[in-house]
Amino acid sequence: MNILLVLIDSLNRRAISPYGPSPFATPNLQRFADRAFRFDNHFVGSLPCMPARREIFSGNMGFQWRPWGPLEPFDARLPRLLERAGYQTGIVTDHYHYWEESANGYIQSFDSAEFIRGHELDFWKPLLPARGLPEWVALVEKWRPGYGQRYFSNVADFRREEDFFPAKVMTAACDWLKARRQEAPFFLQVESFDVHEPFDAPEPYASMYGKAEDRNRFTLWPPYQDAARQADFLAQSSPEELAFIRSQYGAKVTMVDHWFGTLLDELDRQDLWRDTMVIVTTDHGHDLADRPGHGFGKQFPHFDSHANIPLMIWHPDLAGSGNGLAGLTTTMDLFATILDGAGAPQPPGTRSRSVLPQMRGAGGRDAVIYGIFEQGLCCTDGEWTLIQPPDRTRPIYAYSTMVPTTITDKAIGHGLYIPEVAIPQWQIPVTADKPTDRRPQDSEVMLFHRASDPGQTENLVLREPAQADRMRALMGRTLAAQGAPDELFARLGLDRGQA
Length: 499
Description:
Layout: E1 2-8, H1 27-33, E2 37-43, H2 49-58, H3 78-84, E3 88-93, E4 112-115, H4 135-143, H5 147-155, H6 165-179, E5 186-192, H7 227-236, H8 239-269, E6 276-281, E7 287-291, E8 294-297, H9 304-307, E9 311-314, E10 324-330, H10 333-342, H11 356-359, E11 368-371, E12 377-380, E13 384-388, E14 397-400, E15 413-415, E16 425-429, E17 446-449, H12 465-482, H13 486-492
Parallel strand pairs: 1-5, 1-6, 2-10, 3-4, 3-5
Antiparallel strand pairs: 2-9, 6-9, 7-8, 11-12, 12-13, 13-17, 14-16, 15-16
Helix pairs in contact: 1-8, 4-5, 6-8
């Protein structure tokens, strides 16, 4: 059986019609959902971009051990496993992080790789002079110095819709499907970095949900990685500006949906639905400042608005017909699901679980955990969600066979720390973030009942102490089952329990 994995970066569930009423048009995602299974309790694991992809490639969570970085020498490589099973493999992507030093080792495991250059901060074209930049670029520069100039230097000559990234990615994916070898099954990974910021979309999309000309009044790229700068931005921005940013996010959603439709058309033309499993998902969502006191992005605390993400799967032998499945799944489960679909064995030591049994009527996980290295931890059993901040006075280490470029502290330990990994690792002390890098809610324990409070606005941690204790114990057991260093339990105030 062929396998097609489509990743649409930063895609919110509530932005697409398969998950309920949406303010944005997504007819092609709906067209796919109508034949597929829809997973209603699919969650992120390790965030953001590359940590999520490491889970997909390796079948293990990583945020408990280290931050953003390359694949480790001991990590499984999903495309290589499929190649051994007789598959031809390829990736078509504009996700520029793949060709950065800090994300090495991912694309090298494919038979073929098609790069669409120029998105976000891709070091593609020579920088244009800082003087004379368009007004909308200057507005980006105000809150993200250097970002607007870098991005505009890459896209300054874009004139038509076909010049933009979703068009290039989906067209190249169609070309790959036409050129593939017919005698072997294929695994094709298609990644659209859109709807990732900056929220720069051409017409007709830019005017669909707002006034396109407002880009010369408001930014297309709000800050969020720097908490102090984001707080400053939110204090100065008007409701009109926030609404404009959301409208341009929606413009990108609809643009990606349109070009995703060309990929569906190619599957139709080649009659690939009869022997191809198709998976459509994202790495994480993206908050759009629609929660009081909480801005943009996918930072901790991880509310459902960006943590409960879309996953839809078509399998030629399992008629989905738009049915929703309630079982819990998580990002790293894509690894086992793809191997299961290929009839390939899952390597020992990987903790991924195939979701195909759910499509045959089985249940999901008892709980899932998710987070970003060094920050707090979240856990849900489907009914309740606990958000547990860290004690930042306690030490934390990164563990890796390399010293990632994202860590600048001196490595002082060396030994065997990660379970089932025989290659020695560095134990790297990580400097705690500064108080100015945090928001007040970053240190608040939160408990939510998902069914009665889907917006997660009512913190029940004081009113439901028994549920809070139960979820804290469940979080500890689930974290232990995924493998985690002792100091992380102390930092989160958790009991390791029985994995």
